[in-house]
Every structure is written in C-alpha cells, then in structure tokens.
Design a protein that fits this description.
Layout (H helix, E strand, L loop, with lengths): L2 H24 L1 H20 L5 H15 L22 H7 L5 H12 L1 H11 L7 H16 L2 H6 L6 H20 L3 H17 L4 H7 L10 H34 L8 H4 L19 H10 L17 H21 L13 H23 L7 H18 L4 H21 L16 E3 L10 E4 L17 E4 L12 H13 L3 E6 L14 H8 L4 E14 L20 E11 L11 H14 L12 E5 L3 E8 L4 E6 L2 E6 L6 E5 H6 L5 E5 L3 E5 L2 H11 L6 H12 L2
Parallel strand pairs: 2-3, 2-4
Antiparallel strand pairs: 1-5, 4-6, 5-6, 7-8, 8-9, 9-10, 10-11, 12-13
Helix pairs in contact: 2-5, 2-6, 2-7, 3-4, 6-7, 6-9, 6-17, 7-17, 9-10, 9-17, 10-11, 10-12, 11-16, 15-17, 16-17
C-alpha cells in the first residue's frame, strides 16, 4: 500500500473514532450513567465506613477462604454461612487487604454497585417506543430516581454485602431476555439464563428471580413450540451456569460433608454435621393471606421489621398496585361503554409485550419471594423492576394529561425522598480514617507456633483469621449453629482438631471491659469453662494475651459479659487464653439439663412447625455459681426457647416478644393438647384452651402448696 493510501485509511479511522466519540457524548446514557455513579459514590461517603455484623461474622472470612483452602483446618469458623459459595466476596477481601484507604475501597465498591441504576435505566426505556426519545429519557431518569430512593439499597452502597452486585447480574439477565422479545434470538435467551444461573450460584436467594424469569421467554412472538423451545434453552442455561460456578466449591463441600451445597438442602443430602429440617426464616413472611395482600401498603410505613431490620419505607409497591388497579378500572369502564382508545399502543406492539412479560414475571417473583423469604435485601433487583414498571405505567395512565403526570411525579418523589430523610434507618456511621479498613495486632507470644483457637461468643470473630499465624486452625463453638452432642460427627471433628494441635490450644473471645487493654485475666472463667467442658478442657486464666483490633465498632456478646458502647477510637480487644485438659474429664450434662431436655423435646413434638429443626442442641446459660438455665435456638424458624425458674419461654428473635408456654414440670410430663400458630408480622405463638392446659397441668402435676406458687402457675397458663 502506498503512503497516500495509508494516510487515507488513517484519516478514515480517525474520522470514524471521532464520530463514535460524538455519538457517545450526544447520548443521554453517558450523562445518566455518570450522574448515577456520582450519586452512589457520594451517598457511600456520607454513610461512612461500613462495619456491620455480617462483615465481621463471615464476609471477610468468605473472601479469605475462597483463596485459601480452609477445609480440614477450620470447622464452622464463620458459622454455617462460612460454607456458602464465597467467590462473590473475593473483591471486597482483596480490596481490604490492599494498601488502599477505606474511602478509596468504599468508592470502588460504590462504582461497581452503581451499575444497578444503569440497568434500571435500560430496563425502563426498553418498554418505550424508540421514536419518542424524549419520553424514553424522562421515563428512564424517573425510574433511576425511584430505584435509588430505596433505603435498603442505599444502606448497601459501599459495603461488603453482595446483594447489590449479584442483583446487577440478575437485572442483566432479565434485560437480555427482554431484548429477545424485540429481536428473538437464541443467543440472548441463553445468555440471560447463564447470567441468572451464575447469580443463583453466587447467592442462592437469587434463584427465585431465575425461576420467575422463565415466564419472560413465553412472550416471544411466534408459536407455542417456539416459546417452549426458548424457555427450555433458558432453563438449560440457568442449570449449566449454576453447576459451573458452584463446581469448584461444591467439590470441597461434597468431599468434607457429603453435601455439595452444604448447609443448604440438607434435608435431601442429609449430611450428619447439620440439621436436615427446613431452614425457612419466617421473620418477614406474612402470617396470613390478608397480611400478604396488604404488604405493599405496609411497606410504605416507616417502621422496622416489615421487610428489613431497620425502618425502610418504600412507596413503589403501593404505587404499582394503585396504577395497575386504575388502569384496569379504566379499561373496564371503556369496555362497558364500548369505547376505543386510539392513543393507546396496540396490544401486539413490542412495548406492550415487554410490559406484559415484565409484569407477569414480577408478579410471579413477588409471590414466591413472600412465600420463602419476604426479606427486602433479597428483593433488590425486583425493587428496581417495580420502580421501572410503576413509572412506565404511570406515564401510560397520564399520557393525555402531562400536567397531572408532572404533579404526580413531584408528589411521589417528594414523599419518598422525605421518607429517606425522616423515616428511614441507616447503618452506624464510622468516620473515614487513613490506614486499612481495620487492623489486627497479634502479640508475639502467639506467632511462635500454629495453634488451634476455639472461638466463644455470639460473634464468630472470624475476620481476624487472615491475620493470625499460618498453620493455625479455628473452631467456633459460640457464634453459629454447631450442634455438638456426645459421639456426634461434630463432636468427633472438634475432638480430632484438639488432638492434632494439643497442647497448643487456646480460647478466643471478646473482652468488653473498659480496662481490656491492660486486663490479662478472664472476666468469667466459669462461664468459659462450661463451654469447653464437653471436651474435657478448661481455660488457664493466668496465661492470657490480648489481640487488638482497630477500626471496628460492632458490639458482640460473650459469656457473662454485658454490652457496652463502642469506644470512641473504635478499638476492640479479643482475649485469648491457653486451654488445658480438665481434671474431671468431659462434662456433657449439667445440673437440670436432662429435665430441661425432656421439656424441650415435648415442646418440639407439640409444635413441629414452629420449633425446627428438632433437638438442635442446648445452649448453656448461667454457671455453676449462679445456677444454670438452658436454651435452644431453632434456625429454621428463627425462634429461641429457654427454661428458667421453672417456666418455659420462647421468643421470635429480631422483632418478636417474649411469650410463656407454661411450666417446665407440665412439659416434662408429656405433650399437652395445644394449637400452634403464627401471629402478627410473622411472629409465633403457642395457643391452647385455658381449660385444657389447666386440666393437663393438674392431672400430671399435683398443685404445689402455697398460694403464691399456684398463682404463678395460673398466670403462666393464662398467657397462652
């Protein structure tokens, strides 16, 4: 080629690049995407550094374990959540282990999370004709504002949670399926299936959205055979991606537990290390059909524990219901008057098909979500879909009345933004500081030789594991659902680790005392020793050291400790003490435990739907000095039951209230005739006939002498 020809080609390439750049700069997407990202990053900045319970409980450990094989070394170190597919947590782990400041890390995470607003824009504009560019942009921007004005979504910006990043994969999968409605093609359908399968593998709660999305290919134009073929390809794509993304981790789980998705679906695979019952959490699931129908309107109120732990008022679902009902009534009125709406798009148009597909899939998703979860964190992608649907339908409703549309949008956005300011709860603010996200200082005495650390307390403290000496192992006895009984698989696994590392075994727990920086003895040795007693161990409270953690603020609980405010410097202390063999040998049963177990077993038999899985193992409360009482936590329903002062009590955690089920002696005698049900916003109750319960108590247990004791029994029975 001559130099002149090369110059012409170079000039054409330059002109082509210039034209592409001009098109990009002229596209509203550039400005919407840029504004969305700036908004999310700014929001993350004002929220402060995130250091929530789950971050310290298992998020850090999950990213660490994905890159370092901890099987065979740790055992439930981060509770059961530590065995979920961990790959989505790797970016956060790598960022906090880098030299970046917390503000830089959170900003990078926020940029990644801002893509959920980009996808919402694309989803909203997909249902608007292309020959109306101004309307498309207005609808897209309105949908983005509505998607952003979600308190649950805002709380996750700049955080370690993977709800938003996996929600982006879900929305991308739905968007690919929607694209197949305009230009049908196998590639788009399969690609959507692959995305949704990957999202389900990375976070199993996304499986609901994958199942609901199967309704979208049914709206592809053509014959039923064609629709069925597209749907089948979508389902195949979901299955292939789910298996491929899960495969490396599932091989480890299968090898160690016999369950490739441990601890999920253990009722199918029956790994002996975990309960086999259903793990359904009723915390946010409506208890009645009426409550389910009213849920969209209940979510408007600024009260906690509707679909989120904090107050998270959300107007979009009530708006969607109101707009759909209004459109339906208008359609019915026009049908009755035999009128036609010339301005409305044809029913067979692409935009109408997109709306119908999104609406049907969203409705299916909503019903499944309320049935199995009701947790707003797991509904983030559909919250964006609801916002897009609500805005598009509102524009259609007011197509002939632009002034009314403007007033309605101003009122809706005004109310929701006011709710964000005045009615929503947000995570605790931690100021931005230089240095790492958090730092762990390990005393030199612990770095000389690998050790086994037995963690005790409500928090697993697994976030310190990446900073501990290489070769160390960790077992969590207090922060998860590790059910240990004599000769159980869990007990044998823990005992094997103790034998492997003996005599280099230590216990770790948080020290809540104000002088923890200089204190070198256990706060309540007897309470700690009771946790270790089943393995014939005790702590040497004269051989202890402090692990210093800076940059955290979460309040933990430890045996015998009281809660206190986090220090102004956000510095916490973990005490670790040497563990030795106890002279009395293993102690599996404590005074009063057998009687308590009998009462617990009868309670579970009477109400198997409320107290499951059955026989999860006792949690020890109190100590030898002050006396023991026992509790059982039922992760399948989020209920805790305990026996104290001769009374059986239970409570729905996270928003429930303490209730009495009668006397311990009554439940020890057998199973009374009771009716079990749920009340309120998914809370639980044991209900029964006062006469029947009173007669049962009298027939099995003669009345105790003393009017005071009898009156106490009557009061407890009356509470049912």
């Amino acid at each position: 080629m001559t130099p002149a020809g090369e110059s012409r080609d170079s000039l054409r390439a330059s002109l082509s690049s210039l034209a592409l750049l001009k098109r990009i700069c002229a596209s509203p997407r550039l400005y919407v995407y840029t504004a969305s990202t700036l908004l999310v990053v700014t929001t993350s900045y004002f929220l402060g550094k995130e250091m929530l319970w789950d971050t310290l409980y298992y998020h850090v450990y999950a990213g660490f374990s994905a890159l370092h094989n901890r099987f065979g070394r740790d055992y439930f170190a981060a509770g059961p959540q530590g065995y979920f597919n961990p790959y989505a947590y790797v970016p956060f782990y790598l960022l906090i282990r880098s030299s970046l400041t917390p503000l830089a890390i959170a900003s990078i995470l926020a940029v990644m999370q801002s893509a959920i607003l980009w996808l919402t824009y694309e989803l909203a504009t997909a249902s608007v004709p292309r020959d109306k560019p101004q309307i498309r942009v207005l609808i897209g921007v309105s949908a983005v504002i509505f998607a952003f004005a979600n308190p649950i979504l805002i709380n996750e910006f700049g955080s370690s949670a993977i709800d938003v990043t996996t929600a982006e994969i879900v929305l991308a999968g739905w968007l690919a399926l929607i694209a197949a409605l305009r230009n049908p093609g196998l590639t788009k359908v399969v690609f959507g299936g692959l995305l949704l399968g990957a999202a389900s593998a990375l976070k199993p709660t996304n499986a609901v959205h994958a199942v609901a999305a199967a309704a979208i290919p049914l709206f592809v134009p053509g014959s039923f055979r064609r629709k069925f073929g597209y749907t089948s390809l979508f389902v195949a794509g979901v299955g292939v991606a789910f298996v491929v993304v899960n495969l490396p981790w599932s091989l480890h789980l299968e090898r160690h537990f016999g369950n490739p998705v441990f601890p999920l679906l253990n009722g199918v695979f029956r790994s002996p290390e975990y309960p086999t019952g259903s793990m359904l959490d009723y915390r946010y699931i409506p208890g009645t059909l009426r409550a389910a129908l009213l849920r969209p309107f209940a979510m408007v109120l600024p009260i906690p524990l509707v679909d989120y732990g904090l107050a998270a008022p959300d107007l979009r679902y009530a708006l969607l219901v109101a707009v759909v009902l209004t459109l339906f009534l208008r359609w019915g009125w026009r049908r009755m008057r035999a009128a036609t709406d010339a301005a409305a798009p044809a029913l067979e148009s692409h935009e109408s098909r997109v709306l119908a597909a999104l609406g049907c899939a969203f409705l299916l998703d909503w019903m499944m979500w309320l049935t199995v979860s009701g947790n707003g964190r797991y509904f983030i992608p559909m919250a964006c879909v609801a916002g897009a649907l609500g805005v598009v339908l509102l524009f259609r409703l007011c197509a002939q009345r632009p002034a009314l549309l403007g007033y309605l949008l101003a009122a809706i956005f005004g109310i929701q933004l006011f709710q964000l300011y005045a009615g929503s709860g947000y995570r605790t603010f931690l100021p931005w500081r230089h240095g790492p996200w958090y730092s762990v200082t390990v005393p030199a005495v612990l770095a000389r030789q690998p050790k086994l650390y037995i963690m005790v307390g409500g928090q697993t403290n697994s976030f310190i594991i990446p900073d501990m000496p290489d070769g160390s192992a960790f077992v969590n006895l207090g922060g998860g659902y590790l059910f240990i009984t004599p000769d159980s698989p869990n007990g044998r696994r823990v005992e094997a680790l103790i034998q492997r590392y003996a005599p280099h075994v230590r216990v770790v727990m948080r020290d809540p005392r104000s002088d923890a920086s200089v204190e070198t003895r256990l706060l309540r040795p007897s309470a700690v020793n009771d946790v270790l007693a089943p393995f014939g161990l005790r702590a040497q409270d004269r051989d202890c050291a402090n692990i210093v953690v800076r940059g955290v603020h979460v309040l933990y609980t430890v045996p015998g400790a009281t809660r206190r405010r986090a220090s102004a410097t956000h510095t916490e202390y973990l005490m670790t003490c040497r563990v030795v063999r106890a002279s009395h040998g293993p102690s599996w049963v404590f005074p009063g435990q057998r009687q308590a177990d009998l009462a617990f077993d009868h309670l579970e038999e009477a109400c198997p739907a409320l107290f499951r899985p059955r026989q999860p193992g006792d949690q020890l409360r109190g100590d030898r000095r002050d006396g023991y009482y026992f509790a059982r936590y039922y992760p399948g329903t989020g209920v805790e039951a305990w026996i104290t002062h001769g009374s059986v009590e239970f409570e729905k955690l996270f928003g429930g209230h303490e209730e009495s089920a009668g006397t311990e002696r009554m439940w020890q005698s057998g199973v009374p005739s009771v009716a079990c049900g749920r009340a309120g916003a998914g809370f639980v109750r044991v209900v029964g006939s006062h006469k029947d319960m009173h007669r049962f108590a009298q027939s099995r247990n003669p009345p105790e002498t003393g009017s005071g004791k009898r009156a106490q029994v009557d009061r407890q029975v009356n509470q049912l």
